[in-house]
Amino acid sequence: MTALLVPGPPRTPVERLRWAVADGWTVARRDLIHWLRNPAVIAYQLLWPIMMVLMFGYVFGSAMVVAGGGDYREFLMPGMFAQTMMFGVATTITVVSTDADRGVTDRFRSMPMSPSAVVLGRSMADLANSVLELGILVGCGLLAGWSWHQGPVRALAAVGLLLLLRFALTWVGILVGLSIKPEAAAAAWAPLFPLTMVANTFVSPEQMPGWLGAIATWNPLSATVAACRELFGNPGMGGDSWAAQHPILLAVAWPVALVLVFLPLSVRRYRRLDH
């Protein structure tokens, strides 16, 4: 009889990191394959942002005024990019909750793999999906008349900030998905709408009532949107508040803070699923 030798767990930090990334990529590939085998889900995820651009850009856009002047669709598109990144959290919550409820997550936990591989793989898969969604939305924006005006380097920096926001919000979605049932996860869209509306996504905070404008100015989503408008060279920048004057700094600080809080909480929750 031949015995199978299972390698022991890595001991050094570098070996543990390599182990986590390798196992995480294996899980990410599994998640991406499942996504590709659901054409209805792909169509919905990719068509939704396009419909939003058409609705807000052409149906409501004719009645919208940009503070300080400028084309509304140029103002709108950075907000649509960031809103799409935030709406992706609902998909994260639903998939993570469904896997946990069906026992898939428990099956992974019984394998000799990195303890953080499942949540890390989920974040990798979601980031890959977001790159595709963002690429389609950028193409839709270009057809609608939007463009960037500060050169390709600053435009890529704006895209990087959008993906950083999505990466940070993924860990919020993983924690919530591990904590609720699929029935509750189906309603994850509900709280996302006010979070994206009470921001500078569609109108400038200066055009809102004072108390609501203050909330919108400090919304983490507003920081990313304002930073993208600045980097793309689109209208809608400005404001007297500290947050309005330092959007790029906040667009980095908010996601980093979210990752520092929710990444360890997500890993801890994953390890304590039986408790």
TrEMBL record:
Keyword Cell membrane: yes
Stretches assigned to the ABC transmembrane type-2 domain: 40-273
Localization: Cell membrane; Membrane
Residues that span the membrane, as ranges: 46-68, 80-100, 131-149, 155-178, 185-203, 248-267
Domain of life (superkingdom): Bacteria
Signal peptide (from-to): none
Gene Ontology cellular-component annotations: ATP-binding cassette (ABC) transporter complex
Listed GO biological process terms: response to antibiotic
Keywords noted in UniProt: Antibiotic resistance, Cell membrane, Membrane, Transmembrane, Transmembrane helix, Transport
InterPro entries documented for this protein: ABC2_TM, ABC2_TM_bact-type, ABC_2_transport, Nod_factor_ABC_transporter
Membrane topology recorded in Swiss-Prot or TrEMBL: Multi-pass membrane protein
One Gene Ontology molecular-function label: ABC-type transporter activity
Family stated for the protein in its record: Belongs to the ABC-2 integral membrane protein family.
Protein name: Transport permease protein
